Inverse folding.
């Protein structure tokens, strides 16, 4: 099975993670040359990427599917979609290659994703226009005011649209508004591509949002056209997420080849009303978002008794917290909600279900108490998938992609158990050992930063070496993975920051 992937950006979560998901079923996920992809704020070589897509469908090996980030193809990457001044016409012209792909290779499915522009509630300009460092959180609140005004909701005196316009710099507000209009126009054009039959699947996703925000309002407008075009474009899906979508659409491509019908998936939560909670940085109840991810990966939601895969959601902790900058309280493994999730997981495993854990308790890291509680009840190798990183959408989508492909591949007798254990352990090491523990220690020891932004000049190599040393024996924390290890020279700090890492894992016989 061969899949061509044009990723959202060049980070491993958007390149290597989809490859690891494909490897569960022996699928080959092909990427453009790294030199042609974006490099953080430097846009990709879009002309070279266009030629790569053309050559991908002309390659000797039959291409089963293309997974395409429309932001990468049109703007040159995720950050470029937020920071460049590319005209709308130029972005849409680059998308025309997809019509060529459909014409010359109609047997190759095309699964695409386009993002709603975010407006994060921060003063961090690392991935935003430079003025975000001065007025970023204010622009986020301005977007919320616009949304409330559109809905006719009451506002405080200092939170009205007019109040924000009176105190925010006119030039910066105009710049952001123009970017949002451009990207909204582009997203409407993506719906047209789906309606024209150019795309087999279109995901319109949004990250780092809120229930009232500029992006959430734009999603309402897009949802109107999604419903209007539903007969012509039935496979257009909208839900929270971003960095997990490459893995999700690779999983969708694999499942389409492995089985003729959608995979029956149950989404359950051991905490009463837990699926009704709204996770930080998202605008939907977590259960509603889960339905979108199930559809996106190529599943259909069913009761547990009818499911081939059970997703157990560990819901957001009402006490809050965020492993990236406002560390949560560390719960006990016998905490009521932790125990409820762990017992739900172990119960479904005992009943013979393939079980995935979507650990959504906290943004930007796992719940260590849950991992401990699970390890007390079962070998972690018994899981069909696990994730607990970044947003709830990132967690839900990547865990589902893993579990869905592995479950379908086992059913067909083509599952790679080593690849499964490698991906499962990778998520446990990164999400639990690193994000919820080692990352904060690295930040405290080597910087005076309170957020995981770009490291100071001259410290990248030192911090990388220290993290590699801490991770050397991290696999031993997880029952069932004794003897595995992080290859010391493999550690990467994408974008020279501590926010995320990548690494290679060695099995005991490979050490």
């Amino acid at each position: 099975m061969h899949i061509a992937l044009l990723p959202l950006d060049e980070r491993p979560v958007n390149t290597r993670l989809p490859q690891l998901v494909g490897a569960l079923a022996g699928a080959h996920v092909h990427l453009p040359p790294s030199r042609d992809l974006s490099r953080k704020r430097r846009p990709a070589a879009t002309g070279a990427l266009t030629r790569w897509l053309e050559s991908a469908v002309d390659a000797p090996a039959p291409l089963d599917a293309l997974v395409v980030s429309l932001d990468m193809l049109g703007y040159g990457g995720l950050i470029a979609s937020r920071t460049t001044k590319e005209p709308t016409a130029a972005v849409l012209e680059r998308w025309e290659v997809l019509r060529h792909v459909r014409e010359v290779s109609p047997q190759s499915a095309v699964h695409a994703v386009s993002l709603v522009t975010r407006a994060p509630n921060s003063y961090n300009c690392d991935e935003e226009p430079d003025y975000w460092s001065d007025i970023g959180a204010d622009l986020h609140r301005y977007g919320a005011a616009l949304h409330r005004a559109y809905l006719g909701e009451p506002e405080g005196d200092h939170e009205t649209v007019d109040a924000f316009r009176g105190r925010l710099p006119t030039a910066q507000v105009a710049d952001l508004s123009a970017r949002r209009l451009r990207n909204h126009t582009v997203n409407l054009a993506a719906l047209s591509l789906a309606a024209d039959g150019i795309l087999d699947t279109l995901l319109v996703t949004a990250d780092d949002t809120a229930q009232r925000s500029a992006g959430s309002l734009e999603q309402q407008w897009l949802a109107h056209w999604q419903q209007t075009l539903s007969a012509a474009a039935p496979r257009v899906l909208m839900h929270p997420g971003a960095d997990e979508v490459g893995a999700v659409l690779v999983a969708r491509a694999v499942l389409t080849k492995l089985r003729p019908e959608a995979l029956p998936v149950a989404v359950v939560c051991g905490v009463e009303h837990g699926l009704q909670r709204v996770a930080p940085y998202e605008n939907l109840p977590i259960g509603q978002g889960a339905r979108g991810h199930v559809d996106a990966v190529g599943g259909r939601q069913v009761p547990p008794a009818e499911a081939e895969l059970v997703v157990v959601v560990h819901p957001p902790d009402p006490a809050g917290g965020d492993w990236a900058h406002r560390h949560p309280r560390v719960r006990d493994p016998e905490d009521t909600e932790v125990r409820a999730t762990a017992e739900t997981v172990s119960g479904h495993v005992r009943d013979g279900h393939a079980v995935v854990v979507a650990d959504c308790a906290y943004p930007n890291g796992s719940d260590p108490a849950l991992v401990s509680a699970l390890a007390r009840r079962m070998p972690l190798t018994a899981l069909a998938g696990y994730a607990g990183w970044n947003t709830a959408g990132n967690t839900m989508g990547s865990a589902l992609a893993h579990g869905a492909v592995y479950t379908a591949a086992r059913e067909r007798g083509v599952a790679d158990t080593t690849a499964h254990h490698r991906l499962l352990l990778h998520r446990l090491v990164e999400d639990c050992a690193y994000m919820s523990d080692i990352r904060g220690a690295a930040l405290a020891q080597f910087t005076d930063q309170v957020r995981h932004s770009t490291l100071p000049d001259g410290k990248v190599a030192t911090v990388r070496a220290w993290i590699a040393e801490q991770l050397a024996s991290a696999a031993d924390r997880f029952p069932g993975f004794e003897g595995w290890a992080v290859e010391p020279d493999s550690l990467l700090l994408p974008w020279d920051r501590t926010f995320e890492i990548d690494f290679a894992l060695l099995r005991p016989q490979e050490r």
Notes: The longest helix spans residues 417-446. The first strand starts at residue 2 and ends at 6.
